[in-house]
Amino acid sequence: MTTYPVPGDGSAIRLDWPFLPPRLRTFIERKCGSPVVASHSRDAGFTPGFASVLVCEDGTRHFVKAASAVAQRMSASSYRTEGRTLAALPRSVPAPRLQWMLDDDWVALGIQYAEGPAPRRPWSPVDLSATLDALQAVAEDLSSAPAGLQLGSFADDFAASDHWASLRATRPRLAHADEASALAAEALEAVRGGAVVHTDVRDDNLLVTDAGVLVCDWGSAVLGAPWLDSLIALIGPRGDGLDVQDALRGPMLRDVPAEDVDRVLALLAGYFLAQGALPVPAGSPYLRLHQAWQGEACWQWLCERREWSPTVTVRGAAT
To answer: What's the whole-model pTM score?
Structure first.
């Protein structure tokens, strides 16, 4: 694998505090309980919505997200899902707490400020172990959806598109594409379940705190198999060169059939590779690089597990 190409900070193009509508700034300050004197944008990630740590006159800090329901519909929808999910999470889930939510012409979230960095890239065994501990707690506490929380399903999200069909059409020389497509189709039953699944576990959606890892950014939460997040969390570390075999023998993954792991890797490889080949969105310059890299990480891992040869990069013309 190549080095992860996305910068740890600066991957997102976000609004700054002075450019929010005055009425929205007034609302946020009222919710914070004090005037805002400084704003520190959190520029990791891939959405263009506002996401900043606000420092108030009284010395308190607040993490606030906001997106226009008209001009930034996708970001607003993601924030809406995140707000509703955070509001429903049990206190035991290792995630920042929702303080307040606005759902009007702007969707805005006030989220508990937590001190701590994201896991460093390349991933370390220590950060991965702490992340998997947090995800085990998430899976145990969210084995079923909290009352009143309505979410779609992981399987239904993927059933709508056949990403391998487009890859076979655009990359006819990609070896083992037919086998991977068949595996991906079989994954839809393997991933079904009633657990709340984050689905977007990656370094910039995690905080390493003194009390452990917090899982942030719940805007893509769905229902699915409880082990999915633990497998998804291994993609970045595995792509960074970390040996994840011990993690596959951990409490969340050891009872998952090896064939189901392969099916999900095939499903994710197809998704990420197809998405990574799309045009770059104006508000997210690094999104396609991230998706292409993730796709290669899944593909190479799958090829090694299936003993497929050659396990070449798929970013260019594959053989």
So the answer is: 0.94
* Cβ(48)–Cβ(98) below 8 Å: no
Nearest Cα to Cα of residue 269 among 277, 280, 258: 277
**Same domain flag for 85 and 169:** no
Q: Are residues 96 and 138 in the same domain?
A: no
Contact 226, 194 (CB under 8 A): no
Query: 161-174 burial by CB neighbour count: b if 16+ within 10 A, else e?
Result: eebbeebbeebeeb
- What would the pLDDT profile of 90-132 be if each residue is shown by its tens digit? 999 999 999 999 999 999 999 999 999 999 999 999 999 999 9
What CATH number does the domain containing 297 carry? 3.90.1200.10
**Which pair of structure tokens corresponds to residue 298?**
């899944």
- Among 3-12, 28-37, 216-225, the range scoring the smallest mean pLDDT is 3-12
Q: Which of 85, 128, 116, 79 is nearest to 208 (CA)?
A: 116
- Stated as kind and residue range, the H or E segment containing 98 is strand 98-103
SS3 284: coil
Query: What is the tens place of the pLDDT at every residue in 207-223?
Result: 999 999 999 999 999 99
Domain that holds residue 72: 17-111
Nearby residues of 122 by Cβ (< 8 Å), 6 or more positions away: 3, 4, 237, 240, 241, 242
Q: What is the pLDDT of residue 310?
A: 56
Strand 195-197 with 222-224, pairing: antiparallel
Q: How many CB atoms lie within 10 A of CB 82?
A: 22
Cα–Cα dist 272/305, whole Å: 19
Assess whether 272 and 171 both reside in one domain.
yes
